[in-house]
Amino acid sequence: MRKLIAALAAVAVSATVFASAGYAADKKLTIALIPGLTTDAFYISMRKGAEAAAKAVGVDLVFQGAPDFNPVLQVPVLDAVIARHPDAILIAPTDKNQLIQPLKKAADAGITVVTVDTFIGTGKYQTGAGDADFPISYIASDNILGGEIAARALAKSIGDKGKVFVSNVKPGISTTDQREEGFKREMKNHPGITVLETQFNDDDANKAASQLQSVLARNNDLVGVFGANLFSALGAANGVKQANKIGVVKVVAFDAPSSIVDNLKSGLVDIAIAQHPAEIGYYGVMTAYAHLTGNSVPTAIGTGFTVMDKANIDDPNVARFIYKQ
Ligand code: T6T
């Protein structure tokens, strides 16, 4: 009898949880993924991971985004997605502050919000503090650590001395801000290295290439650059090539598009720090699904890195983290 009461109580508890999460077992859930931009191999890989998870748990996945990494373009996409009222939105917010109010509209409409790759506010969710803690979870790389790894790699390849700079996107993006923070923090441990002023390229590789050449024109003793995301790194590397400085100006790249293989092999790029975007997409969908079906979820999930260089890039266990097109 006692066992029966316990079993009934368990049923009652789970029924309450499902009711509070608004879950109806017969309804097919829809999860929308809004990337930072649609044509970036990083988000294309993230989409593949999200699709794998959606297939595994039987939810519909919608992928909708803007052609550029820009809050002015992302907010209308978000509004259109909110109007379709999916059960959850996974989003890589393109600005820490400018996406808070637009996303609040989704949460107020009863849509579960998870941020992937980037965060809003401080990135600390479900704390009851501030106006941006409403997303249920943040799934991403540890970007401060990534910046530190980049700094250590660059310091090593330049023999711990000389002038370097960070090629970055623009201030206000959580990921790239944190990479720069981690990079500069670690460089404090390398007194022989001077970190010049950061150059912001608006996610435009051509701009990053010409900025590299301008920095070089002002500092002919430049020895290194950290490209803080895919387009910054690609552009900085191209700038080094155009200036005929391969091997003289060392390049540490964040992200790993398919072109990274040739760049590592030719010595144009010394180190590439690959994120695991497919993991981010996979756990993003799984987290939303768990929440929507009445389970508790962690408020943050950290995904890994793979550090690539000339010596390991042919290893299949490394090469599998090259981003998909
Ligand atoms: O580095 C990634 C992503 O983590 C960042 O938030 C924005 O840029 C990328 O998408 C690469 O282009």
Task: Explain what you see.
- The chain is an alpha/beta fold.
- The protein has two domains: 2-141 and 276-304, Rossmann fold, CATH 3.40.50; 143-274 and 310-319, Rossmann fold (3-Layer(aba) Sandwich), CATH 3.40.50.2300.
- The chain has eleven helices and 13 strands.
- It has helices spanning 2-20, 41-57, 71-84, 100-108, 143-157, 174-187, 205-218, 230-242, 260-266, 277-292, 316-319; strands spanning 30-34, 60-63, 88-91, 112-116, 137-141, 162-168, 193-195, 199-200, 222-227, 250-254, 271-275, 300-303, 305-308.
- The strands form two sheets. Strands 6, 7, 8, 9, 10, 11 and 13 form a seven-stranded mixed sheet that branches. It has a six-stranded parallel sheet with strand order 2-1-3-4-5-12, with helices on both faces.
- Helix 7 (205-218) packs across helix 8 (230-242).
- The longest helix has 19 residues, at 2-20.
- It binds alpha-D-tagatopyranose.
- The site of alpha-D-tagatopyranose has 12 residues, from helix 8.
